[in-house]
Amino acid sequence: MTDELSPRFAEDLVRARVEARLAEAGASEASRAAAIKAMIHASLVGVDSHGVRLTGHYCKMLGGGRLNKNPQLKVESRGAGSAMVHGDDGLGHYAAYRAVEVGIELARQAGVGAVGIKHSSHLGAAGAYALAGAEQGFVTFATTNTDSMVALYDGAQKFHGTNPLAFAAPVPNARPWLLDMATSSIPLNRVLLHRSLDKALPEGVAATADGEPTTDPHEADMLLPLGGVDYGYKGAALAGVATLFSALLTGTTLDPDFIPMYGGDDISTPRNMGHFVLVIDPDKFAGRAVFAAAIGSYLESLRGSRVRDGGRVMAPGDREWEEMDRRKAEGIPVDPDTVRFLGL
Amino acid sequence: MTDELSPRFAEDLVRARVEARLAEAGASEASRAAAIKAMIHASLVGVDSHGVRLTGHYCKMLGGGRLNKNPQLKVESRGAGSAMVHGDDGLGHYAAYRAVEVGIELARQAGVGAVGIKHSSHLGAAGAYALAGAEQGFVTFATTNTDSMVALYDGAQKFHGTNPLAFAAPVPNARPWLLDMATSSIPLNRVLLHRSLDKALPEGVAATADGEPTTDPHEADMLLPLGGVDYGYKGAALAGVATLFSALLTGTTLDPDFIPMYGGDDISTPRNMGHFVLVIDPDKFAGRAVFAAAIGSYLESLRGSRVRDGGRVMAPGDREWEEMDRRKAEGIPVDPDTVRFLGL
């Protein structure tokens, strides 16, 4: 875990070291380029849990055989607006970025491209793929299901993963509107951080092994869905939306059925993870010019709206772009284990 | 507002009276049939705020000229997977149900149908349209933006509407998986109910006119987004997703720019409300049989999962279907004003 005390390293240096490690581990040039792009995105916008710290994990899984070093992606067209990408059990980033490209090609003609991904693996931050579509001018949605870690509403077991929903939209003369949210209130990393600091958690974000809400990070065994104790049925249902699109529509693995990402003995069996990407061409709806004017006006109205004392109103992505600017200038903070692994 | 003391009336009687009032108000047969279907859906599943109580409001707007009594819908094809429906300023339910049908036609061929709706009006419960797609075998998403009522994270003004996100999916031999959620924690009606009962609100669901969180229903001036005081940036961003799809992509009215639904002087100017419907054919992804087995297995696993003491785990929609069974047996509760208006 990174914190304010973590040493910082220049983006280019970090990138080069990640590249070297993944190459040594045998990942093909194309698949490692995708993984690096996604990890550096996460590390720049401040999502360290999905950033370069995963390099060691991916290298281990490439060595163990869970991940195919030289995946050959297959794109199966299913209709004028739909396709499936077969990830060939390689690094999930590779299949997911390809799905965005396929979605864009479909959307240019059909107005929309819906692309399921199967036989994939961990894809890092889902926002990286929503962003990839938005950077090319398309409204993009990306989601995945993940290992069970979050209770259902009133549940007493880990059921859904932290199942992210990521949306991005192009903004004229500015960086995209970008939402990349877990459907739990906090990530597991936050619990681990509070545990190491012996610091209480906020209310309604974690539960004991019996599903009882707790603020004690040492007692916390699972996360609670967004909405907390009172409205967690909404967060749980949104986690279900991620599973619906990523696993049920693609015929891949359900959250509770995954071979554990970490900590299990099996690092040789592929996990058949699914994801889903939806790409929409604004040109086929209001038209690109009207859309651009509308989102500009919307963001101006949002950023200019009245703020409560001591607060600050931001659009989704604003915090991430600020953090990116800071990290491009001051470097990417890297945790001690990853510093050692990357030889920084 | 309905409560446990509200008198109940048989569905058929209520439906007949709603039909009579809308016919008297001049709504065309097709447009009132759609409105009735959506209102009865909401009244049966327990979403009374969007149920038959709106009959009087719609009749007033049909009389005032805001709503076109005899709308001629236009469907503009935009690509193999995309279309726009022009609602001709009629009852929004009519345009929204048509959009679902258009989406299904597109999805059967293209695998996905993305349909924007413009020049529409209030559509009632967004879940009605997600459900309409699921009942025909399609995974369906429906959303709309609405009048400003919810603060931004750290905001001190009403910005987004309660902007619902509705998803539904077909389940073999059972009623659909159905999520219809506001992106605020509670609806405005809940505040009004607590105000009339002089009863404190839960924490983190409402704010004063200065954006300060309050549990005092008399001080509450706006709603807070899902996620409450700590994680409301997620709910605010999800409200933005509804606006992105419904208003920005369709070129229709932004939440703060709507002529007020209620309480304003102007009941003659159409509001140019937008919505968005997305329909996906499971047959073009995992295939219908694999999808059916997967969602069956997922729901079995969910409903059989461990429950915390005194709790109950449900899938999205389970509560609604139970309420529907109860109301079909015991009748639909109707508030006093609506009892008078419908002559019950």
From TrEMBL, chains A, B:
Assigned protein family: Belongs to the LDH2/MDH2 oxidoreductase family.
One Pfam family cited in the UniProt record for this chain: Ldh_2
Oxidoreductase recorded as keyword: yes
GO molecular function: oxidoreductase activity
SUPFAM superfamilies, per the entry: L-sulfolactate dehydrogenase-like (SSF89733)
UniProt xrefs under Gene3D superfamilies: 1.10.1530.10, Hypothetical oxidoreductase yiak, domain 2 (3.30.1370.60)
InterPro entries: Mal/L-sulf/L-lact_DH-like_ah, Mal/L-sulf/L-lact_DH-like_NADP, Mal/L-sulfo/L-lacto_DH-like_sf, Malate/L-lactate_DH-like
Superkingdom to which the source organism belongs: Bacteria
Key word Metal-binding present: no
Name this protein carries in UniProt: Oxidoreductase
Keywords annotated in UniProt: Oxidoreductase
